[in-house]
Amino acid sequence: MNRYYFIFFFIGFNLFAQDQNTYLDSISNQIKTQKPKQALNTIIEIPYGSFVAELEKSEQLFNKGIELSKSINDSIALGEIMFKYGQLKSYQNKFDQGLEYTLQAIRIFEHQKNNTKAGIAYGGLGYNLKTRDLDKGFYYMQKGIKLLEIENDLEGLNPVYDNYGVLLSMDKKLDSALYYQYKSLAIKKQLKDSIGLGYSYANIANTFAEKQNYELAKTYVDSSSVIRNKIADNYGITVNYVHIAEIFQQEKNYIKAIDNYKTCAELANKYKYKHLEKYCYQNIATCYKKLNKYKDALDFNERFQALKDSTNNVATQNKIEELQIQFETEKKEKQLAEAKSDILIKEAKIKRKTTLTYYAFGLAFFLGLIGYLVYKQQRLKNKQIIKENELKEALIKIENQNNLQEQRLAISKDLHDNIGSQLTFIISSLDNLKYFDFTKEKLYNKFDSIGNFTRSTITDLRDTIWAMNKEEITFEDLKTRTTNFIEAAKTSLLGIDFEFNYPKDTDNVKLNSLQGIDVYRIIQEAINNAVKHAKATKIVVNFEIVNNDLKISIIDNGIGFDQSTIEAGNGLSSMKKRANEIDADFEMKSSDQGTEITIKFKM
After folding, report:
1. How many alpha carbons fall within 13 Å on the CB side of residue 282?
2. Which single residue of 43, 101, 225, 565 has CA 20 to 30 Å from 520?
3. Residue 445 domain-assigned?
4. How far apart are the first and last CA of the chain?
């Protein structure tokens, strides 16, 4: 699905919990009685949520700020106003003007050597370019991150990390996206940034939705909504309806998706967020088309076309590209001039050192040649013998280390993907308890649910550690681990008959750690599927050894399913992926008499 992300770049200001209309009106009245410098600071400090809520009034105030900063010759203040003005123009769908103001702000900050403000502006520029030129968006955001990391500015890195995660998610680099989004979330908690928490949770929800983990995505959207409703963040509340609508749309629940898009469109129309309103109409038309309601689809498509702005025409796009080229050309010309000056200085130093350098090299060469001739014959023989032996030992050691490292990296990735997501869910669930009023009974039930989920996570973690701590896994280890799992299942799942068959003489049978954990996980997943979905009353696990091949079968007498009509869920996909990691043949047969899953691979 071509997803659209709405969490725009923001600066960590505190949002005033009051009516936004009266707030900007009060600012306009306040600056009339202030001196120019004080009035300019008042305009610069307008919170992000306030100027987004009333774009027309904000534009008047920013124009006044530009006039004041020029009158008192305050270039840094002018750059800050220009940057905010660029954001405002983007909200008005005037992206060419927004880009022009942002580039002016960057020029000012770089001229003043203010890395922090330049880094924030580069981050905003990259984020606003993401839907037009993703590569350019990455380029500018990486420049911003580099500048902010040099200054170690947490307040600046906070939103830039978050939005960089959005770009990575758009580029389908989902694990990297979560890495930066969680870094931003940690900073927000450290800074007690309540507004930013709403944005972080919403962005993380988008990434989990891209990973098709819809339940976890909904949990994060709910966390975001609790915070945004608590602080009356109108823009954030409006955007969250889009997030939840997109999740329902991906789940093909088009009715709920349409309801949430319509709610968002109404709020967007009320607060004049035209880009949100336009996007909602476009997706409502798409959902109605999926439901074969072509009349409704046509109606909302016409609304979308009516709001479609000029940013898509060739002239505007050419202007955007021209501004980028002009900006880059200016920077390259400046860099060339600086480089030329550096070259002249370095050439002068080199000329002074050239003679001494030649003498030093000549003397070193002469002494080295004498030593080489004296010891050449004997050293050559000894060195050759030693190197041959060292090379053989090194090759054997490197090969063993590489094999072991590859296995541990694969298991570490499994630990990151599975345990990481489960721990994240536990943390989110605990965080959410702070924002709801629970009865004693509901609270105990919630704790029981989190406790059960935590115990399951601990079991998975122990299994992974078991594999990582072994360079190789004997067949006896795998058999014992599987037996314990089946015995535990027998105890907790009354009414299901388990059978486990395996060969007796397996003393010399060994697996590497990756094979051991992947086989064990496949058996777990197959048994869980048989219990949860197949309504099985008997489950059989067979281990067979043929030559150097290990064949494992998991057979149940459940209701089965039609493979031609049922899409592969996360469980089946996970089993296939694990089989592929250990070069195993994977086969599944299913009918109304039951299901048989077979894997076969060389040990």
Report:
1. 15
2. 565
3. no
4. 40
Q: Which residues contact 270 (CB under 8 A, 6 or more apart)?
A: none
Q: Are 103 and 139 contained in the same domain? A: no
HEC readout, 108-149: HHHHCCCHHHHHHHHHHHHHHCCCCCHHHHHHHHHHHHHHHH
- CB–CB of 91/52 below 8 Å? yes
Name the domain boundary from 308, 329, 353: 308
Range of the domain at 166: 122-232
**271's tokens:** 């607060």
Q: What is the dihedral of CA 98, 104, 106, 109, to 10 degrees?
A: -140
Which pLDDT score is estimated for 293? 93
pLDDT tens digits for range 24-58 = 888 888 988 999 899 889 988 887 767 776 778 88
CATH number at residue 501: 3.30.565.10
Question: What is the rounded radius of gyration, in angstroms, for the C-alpha atoms of the chain?
Answer: 32
Last residue of a domain, one of 113, 146, 175: 113
CA distance 259 to 278: 16
> Which long-range contacts does 525-531 make (Cβ < 8 Å, 24+ apart)?
525/571, 525/574, 525/575, 526/554, 526/575, 526/597, 527/485, 527/486, 527/489, 527/554, 528/571, 529/571, 529/572, 529/595, 530/554, 530/556, 530/558, 530/595, 531/489, 531/493, 531/496
* Nearest to 63, CA basis, from 78, 52, 74: 78
CA atoms within 13 A on the CB side of 558: 25
User: 270-283 pLDDT, tens per residue?
Assistant: 887 888 889 999 99
User: For the CA atoms of 477, 481, 483, 489, what is the dihedral angle to 10 degrees?
Assistant: 180
pLDDT beyond 80 at 74: yes
Structure tokens that stand for 261 in this block: 């898009």
**Using CB atoms within 10 A of its CB, is residue 266 exposed (0-12), middle (13-18) or buried (19+)?**
middle
With pLDDT > 70 as the criterion, what percentage of the chain qualifies? 72
The answer as to whether 585 is a domain residue is yes
Q: Please choose, from the candidates 247, 195, 248, the residue with its C-alpha nearest in 3D space to the C-alpha of residue 224.
A: 195
| Rounded mean pLDDT, 451-461 | 66
Strand bridging mode 510-512 / 472-474:
antiparallel
Average pLDDT of the chain is 78
Tokens standing for 170? 């758009």
Split into its structural domains, the chain has a count of: 4
pLDDT average, residue stretch 368-394: 72
Does any domain span residue 495? yes
Give exposure, 466-499, as e/b (b: 16+ Cβ within 10 Å): bbbebeebbbebbbebbeebbeebeeeeeebeee
| 592 in any annotated domain | yes
Closest to 51 in 3D by CA, of 87, 101, 97, 9: 87
Whether residues 497 and 588 share a domain: the answer is yes
What is the number of alpha carbons within 13 Å of residue 99 lying toward its C-beta?
27
- Cα separation, 489 vs 10, in Å, equals 51
Roughly what angle, to the nearest 10 degrees, separates helices 75-91 and 36-44? Answer: 40
pLDDT band (50, 70, 90) for residue 451: confident
CA distance linking residue 251 with residue 241, whole number of Å:
15
CA distance readout (Å), 202 to 3, 247, 547:
14, 12, 53
497-501 and 538-546 strand pairing: parallel
